[in-house]
């Protein structure tokens, strides 16, 4: 088609998209083209703005390394990751689910750890936490033999892949549910942390006057043949950023209650003083047990990055 005006341009592109043999890909491409063209028209996008958007997208790819994924970080900061999760679980977002964001820090190959074992693999600041979690299906029946991958940030707010001071795979471990669908492990109380703001995601957050904090959480990946693989994040009920999570991940079903124990014996003899217990139930559904590609594949060899915290602004908000 020879293009005579901007309206014909969209139709010309859609006509070519319609030639796509795969029906699912054809549907996705057609919707993407229509929405992108409508976006350009609605915002009256200028040429300098278009060039800037292209540069930001390119920079997200350029900054993605084996230990950092700027693309996943951007998707989370715009709520896209959370929306995809909600639409693909919990009856298209109409009911509660314990599914949640995968996040940008999952690594494959976590060490197999016996039930009741510790995922603290090097000296790590933080109060001791003893976690007990159950996995059940939609009917409430326990799911035995499920593989549960655990990972979290330290009490200082760093994942081990960011921090050369932590041992490789520190605060990571893989467990198998017992006959009651239960796993138990020891860790340290995680800290909330700021997401990196040295790239385009940081510029986007600054432009909106937002903070860049994630509330403290522990990640759970639950995987078993015959069940849909579930990523979850169990958030700390005492974290001040639950309502304003920069990645929009907090749901009611995933707020964990850390119980402080100031007196009495701890589950481990070497614990002196205060410790926490944490218990939670996860519900997985029958489906395909597929694992996505991990967003990171290795540990950074550079010095651990500074934790830059942005303040949430109340100025300049439209009324």
Explain the overall architecture.
With 319 residues, the chain is an alpha+beta fold. 25% of the residues lie in helices and 18% in strands. The protein has a five-stranded mixed β-sheet, with no helix packed on it. It has a four-stranded mixed β-sheet with strand order 4-1-11-10, with no helix packed on it. The longest helix is centred in the first third of the chain and has 21 residues.
The helix count comes to 7
Radius of gyration: 22 Å
**What is the H/E order?**
HHHHHHEEEEEHEEEEEE
Structural class: alpha+beta
Short description:
By secondary structure, the protein is α+β, with helices and mostly antiparallel strands. It has helices at 6-17, 23-43, 47-62, 70-77, 80-88, 90-93, 200-208, and strands at 128-136, 147-152, 172-176, 182-188, 193-194, 213-214, 217-223, 230-236, 255-256, 259-261, 275-283. Helix content is 25%, strand content 18%.
Topology:
Elements: H1 6-17, H2 23-43, H3 47-62, H4 70-77, H5 80-88, H6 90-93, E1 128-136, E2 147-152, E3 172-176, E4 182-188, E5 193-194, H7 200-208, E6 213-214, E7 217-223, E8 230-236, E9 255-256, E10 259-261, E11 275-283
Parallel strand pairs: 1-11, 8-9
Antiparallel strand pairs: 1-4, 2-3, 2-7, 5-6, 7-8, 10-11
Helix pairs in contact: 1-2
Task: Give the key terms.
7 helices, 319 residues, five-stranded mixed beta sheet, alpha+beta, four-stranded mixed beta sheet, single chain
């Amino acid at each position: 088609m020879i293009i005579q005006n901007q309206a014909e341009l969209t139709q010309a592109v859609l006509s070519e998209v319609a030639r796509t043999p795969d029906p699912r890909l054809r549907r996705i491409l057609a919707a993407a083209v229509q929405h992108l063209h409508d976006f350009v028209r609605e915002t009256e996008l200028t040429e300098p703005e278009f060039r800037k958007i292209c540069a930001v997208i390119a920079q997200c790819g350029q900054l993605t390394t084996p230990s950092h994924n700027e693309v996943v970080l951007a998707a989370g900061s715009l709520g896209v990751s959370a929306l995809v999760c909600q639409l693909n679980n919990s009856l298209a977002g109409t009911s509660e689910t314990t599914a949640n964001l995968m996040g940008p820090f999952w690594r494959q190959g976590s060490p197999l750890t016996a039930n009741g074992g510790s995922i603290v693999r090097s000296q790590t600041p933080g109060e001791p936490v003893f976690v007990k979690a159950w996995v059940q299906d939609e009917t409430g029946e326990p799911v035995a033999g499920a593989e549960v991958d655990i990972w979290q940030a330290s009490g200082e707010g760093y994942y081990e892949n960011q921090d050369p001071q932590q041992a490789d795979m520190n605060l990571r471990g893989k467990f198998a549910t017992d006959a009651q669908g239960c796993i138990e492990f020891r860790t340290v109380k995680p800290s909330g942390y700021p997401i990196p703001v040295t790239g385009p995601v940081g510029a986007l957050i600054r432009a909106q006057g937002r903070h860049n904090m994630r509330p403290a959480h522990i990640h759970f990946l639950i995987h078993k043949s015959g069940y849909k693989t579930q990523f979850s994040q169990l958030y700390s009920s005492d974290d001040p950023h639950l309502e304003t999570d920069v990645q929009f991940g907090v749901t009611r079903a995933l707020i964990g209650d850390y119980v402080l124990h100031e007196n009495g014996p701890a589950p481990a003899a070497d614990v002196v003083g205060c410790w926490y217990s944490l218990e939670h139930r996860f519900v997985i559904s029958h489906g395909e047990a597929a694992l996505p590609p991990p967003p990171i594949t290795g540990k950074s060899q550079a010095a651990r990055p500074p934790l830059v915290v942005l303040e949430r602004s109340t100025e300049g908000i439209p009324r």
